[in-house]
Amino acid sequence: MAKRKKYPRLPNGFGTIRYLGKGRRNPYAVHPPAHLDEKTGDITDRPPALCYVDDYMVGMAVLTAYHAGTYKPGYELSVKQELKQEAAVGTIASRILSDYRKIYGIDANKPTFTQVYERFYAEKFPQGHRYSASAERSARAAYKNCAKLHDSVFASLKYNDLQSVIDNCPLKHASLELIVNLLHQMYRYALMNDICEKDYSSGLKIKKADDDEKGVPFTIEELAVIYAAREDEIAEMLIIMCMSGFRINEYQDLHVNLDEWYFQGGSKTDAGKDRIVPIHTFIRPLVSGRIKRHGKLFPHSAWEFRRSMNSLLKQIGIDGHHTPHDCRHTFSYLCEKYGVLENDRKRMLGHAFSDVTNKVYGHRDVEELRKQIEKIDCDLFVTNKNI
After folding, report:
1. Which end of the chain is less enclosed by CB atoms within 10 A, N or C?
2. CA 121, CA 245: separation in Å to the nearest integer?
């Protein structure tokens, strides 16, 4: 004996669609919500049926219209008539969805966080794309960690809604970075598509201490090899990164002042945000050359740069598993080696001060920092002499 088809379960308190058995022209009774005993939760009174229908989905359309305030006696007849036409299932679904939006206050022109994510994801990772599998996994993981936002209308979200997700996430710093990065990308997508009017992700902060600062600096000998290959775009950028200490993602929006010769940027922590790093005289020709050629310092995507960097290092004979973050460690190493004041090294790297004196009262202007960074002897990059 064939089993009766299963239909979607109705939400609690939505009403019931009772199957009355075979042999009836309209075997489904559509009842509005029953009255329940407040203490026991038992049904005390079942209201009479709104109508009797021959199809469960018609019953769903009736109940949804009932809650949306659009139901009138005989409504089910118009729905049944639609079932006889082509694309009936789609028509009924449209009716239900339209009334569902009225019930829950959802505007079809104001998509939820999940709907914006799905559109963004489909555009960013189309079939045949060139992004890595890890980039897709990172986006999906970050989305899952925003579960609190999934059902919210995207345009209704505010800064505190986003920041609370970051603050309440128990995961490590690296995972929080993925969430912040996803929100930045989604808001850029939403603004371009007129889904929202303001980017509330721009001021997000990760308040948890950074736990992913591991890395291995390049040696002086390796820096000399990289400098010798500076005609290559990637080698050129590696030298600049090793002499400035920003994180790879920070270079994409870095402000470059060629009049007063300094970099300004950084956004990962309060201490690192909008910090200033003077441009060492050794790399000024490299920096100005890139700006002239590309209109900006870093015309790459992070994943593209990492891939090209790995290829270049193998090509010029530098073994090991260096990452772009190792350039930041190299800058710290060079500052320490050539006697840059520790507090100024921290300022240029964007590290937080633990003592009140430096945290609150420590201020240094560009020229004071320039005197410190110029202590680094870059002639070693050229001569590669043993130090």
Report:
1. N
2. 32
Which CATH number fits the domain 113-192, given the four candidates 1.10.10, 1.20.272, 1.10.3470, 1.10.150?
1.10.150
The pLDDT tens digits of the residues spanning 128-170 come to: 555 566 678 888 999 999 999 998 889 999 999 999 999 999 8
What does residue 73 show for φ and ψ, rounded to 5 degrees? Answer: -50, 135
Pick the closest to residue 245 from 221, 228, 262, 229 (CA basis).
Answer: 262
Domain 220-383 homologous superfamily, CATH: Intergrase catalytic core (1.10.443.10)
* Consecutive H or E run containing 381: helix 379-383
Non-local CB neighbours of 179 within 8 Å, separated by 6+ positions: 142, 145, 146, 165, 166, 169
* Calpha distance 317→40 (Å, rounded): 77
Predicted confidence at residue 239, as pLDDT, reads 96
Measured CA to CA, the distance from residue 332 to residue 286 in angstroms comes to 20
- The type of residue at 289 is G
* Predicted local confidence at residue 353, as pLDDT: 42
**Closest to 350 (Cα-Cα) out of 328, 330, 334:** 328
Listed in order, the ranges of the chain carrying CATH 1.10.443.10 are: 220-383
Rounded Cα–Cα distance for residues 143 and 115 (Å): 12
Question: How would DSSP label each residue in 64-125?
Answer: HHHHHT---TTHHHHHHHHHTSTTHHHHHHHHHHHHHHHHHT--TTS-BHHHHHHHHHHHHS
Cβ-defined contacts of 76-85 (< 8 Å, 24+): 76/30, 76/51, 79/53, 80/53, 80/54, 80/55, 83/55, 83/58
The model's pLDDT over 275-327, given as tens digits with 9 standing for 90+, comes to 899 999 999 999 999 999 999 999 888 888 988 999 999 999 997 789 999 99
Q: H or E stretch including 161? A: helix 159-168
Confidence band, pLDDT 50/70/90 cuts, at residue 243: very high
Total Cβ atoms within 10 A of residue 147: 11
> Tokens at residue 289, please?
């050359």
pLDDT, greater one: 223 or 5: 223
